[in-house]
Design a protein that fits this description.
DNA polymerase, domain 1; about 375 residues; single chain; 11 helices; binds iron/sulfur cluster; TIM Barrel; alpha/beta
């Protein structure tokens, strides 16, 4: 719903009901909301003057009331494999990264859902920033538009695997998913949108209840609570058995919709053959695909990448048990765009200090 307290709001966070309200405010028929939606979300127009099929009263109202601007691209790096990482500045100055991964003429985009992350996974560079703030749904949608403009091509797949834990920002991520998959809006197929979580069990259950339009991926990353709690502090609250129960219920409730189990392989930590056997026993009855992700080393990390023989032997144990297991070698490693490598150049809190007031509240300096 539009917030009447704010003089200007981003158009990119608007659902159809918001656009209809804009039509009401402008004194034109609600039917124009569909045209407005097509102009913004299908044709990617950012200039109201170019929306000639809308009544002039609506165009004038839009120009006064709505913000069509996109985040500024502060930096862009392209990997040898074609992967591109973009550093985007939001209206309050906070920065996030989004990654574009081309394959076979199609583009997959990795979307950030928070500035920083609160989950504290010890192998992840984003975690070192801590959580600065949640992103708004429009700030996630805007990442898609920035990519679309930069590459002249709309991404085909979206993965919510950038900075942040999507389910920690449930309301805004739910809004994002609904706008992104709205058949008359951005119209992404729900099968081409994947949300990845570290394992916030109550939110997984809510996701199941709300039937949000996306695939689900879960970072498991260990086969004992002792190891998982060490590398993923969230496990202390929601241990492996609780997580697997939630996944099993999710699969049943979603009519057998497969989930993706992600397993970052850390040499000497979770890559033993005993781990492989335990993983086999854990997920053998779950309708899932296992993605094995050999760790992407980064400066300052104590973790190491396992060698290829170990990764193959680990995978073979799963495959022999009939489990679909794939080794995913992350793209964009040479520009730190791979999984767990996203971090704005210095700690995010430093970068956003203008937005923090002495009482700790976040305020957007551009609006004050
Ligand atoms: S791996 Fe994901 S959930 Fe864990 S700290 Fe990094 S961004 Fe957050």
């Amino acid at each position: 719903m539009l917030n009447p307290m704010l003089p200007v709001q981003s158009i990119y966070g608007c659902a159809l009901s918001d656009l209809e309200r804009l039509c009401d405010e402008a004194g034109v028929k609600k039917v124009h909301a569909d045209r407005l939606r097509a102009a913004v979300f299908r044709r990617g127009l950012t200039d109201v003057a170019a929306m000639g099929d809308l009544p002039s009263a609506l165009r004038q109202h839009l120009a006064r009331r709505m913000d069509f601007s996109l985040p500024q691209v502060r930096a862009s790096q392209r990997s040898a494999d074609g992967t591109e990482k973009m550093l985007l500045a939001m209206r309050d100055g906070s920065e996030v990264e989004t990654v574009l991964i081309p394959a076979a003429g199609r583009l997959t985009q990795c979307i950030s859902t928070q500035v920083g992350c609160a989950m504290g996974c010890t192998f992840c560079l984003t975690a070192t920033a801590g959580l600065v703030r949640h992103l708004q749904a429009e700030e996630m949608i805007m990442q898609v538009f920035v990519a679309w403009r930069a590459r002249g091509q709309r991404p085909r797949n979206l993965v919510l695997m950038g900075m942040g834990e999507p389910l920690h920002n449930y309301e805004q991520v739910a809004r994002f998913l609904r706008i992104a998959t709205d058949a008359k809006g951005l119209a992404f197929s729900p099968n081409r949108v994947t949300l990845s979580t570290a394992g916030l069990v109550p939110a997984i259950r809510r996701l199941q209840q709300d039937r949000l339009p996306c695939n689900l991926a879960v970072s498991l990353n260990a086969t004992t609570d002792e190891v998982r709690s060490r590398i993923m502090p969230i496990n202390r609250k929601y241990p492996i058995s609780m997580l697997l129960d939630a996944l099993s219920d999710y699969v049943s409730a979603r009519g057998g919709k497969r989930v993706l189990v992600e397993y970052v392989m850390l040499a000497g930590i979770n890559d033993s053959l005993d781990d492989a056997y335990r993983l086999r026993d854990m997920v053998g009855s779950l309708d899932c695909t296992v993605n094995l992700l050999p760790f992407n080393e980064h400066a300052g990390s104590a973790f190491r990448r396992p060698d290829e023989e170990r990764v193959s032997a680990f995978r073979a144990i799963l495959v022999e048990a009939g489990i679909v297991a794939v080794v995913r070698d992350s793209r964009g490693r040479d520009i730190s765009a791979a999984c767990g490598q996203l971090l704005t150049q210095r700690p995010v809190r430093d970068r956003c200090c203008t937005a923090f007031q002495s009482d700790g509240a976040l305020r957007c300096s551009s609006r004050s």
